[in-house]
Amino acid sequence: VLEKSNEYDILVSSGGVSMGKYDFVKKILHEYDYEIIINKTAIKPGSPLMVARNENCTIFGMPGYPAA
């Protein structure tokens, strides 16, 4: 998906943005030279929200857990 991200202005991802051992989205975004703009929020539910961008695309990482 990230290899194709230059074709899109915005991508939305569900899950993988919290602090668990299987949450790899932030690490992968760093490898693709994305800047993390928002790492998490102070609202509950919804705290693990993440926003990242590079020169071509902005990615919104939403929590995967339905209650979040």
TrEMBL record:
Cofactor(s), names only, from the UniProt record: Mg(2+)
Entry keywords, A to Z: Magnesium, Metal-binding, Molybdenum, Molybdenum cofactor biosynthesis, Transferase
Swiss-Prot/TrEMBL GO biological process terms: Mo-molybdopterin cofactor biosynthetic process
Domain MoaB/Mog: 3-68
Biological pathway: Cofactor biosynthesis; molybdopterin biosynthesis
A GO CC term assigned to this protein in UniProt: cytosol
InterPro entries, per the entry: MoaB/Mog-like_dom_sf (IPR036425), MoaB/Mog_dom (IPR001453), MoeA-like (IPR038987)
Protein name: Molybdopterin molybdenumtransferase
Taxonomic lineage: Bacteria, Pseudomonadati, Deferribacterota, Deferribacteres, Deferribacterales
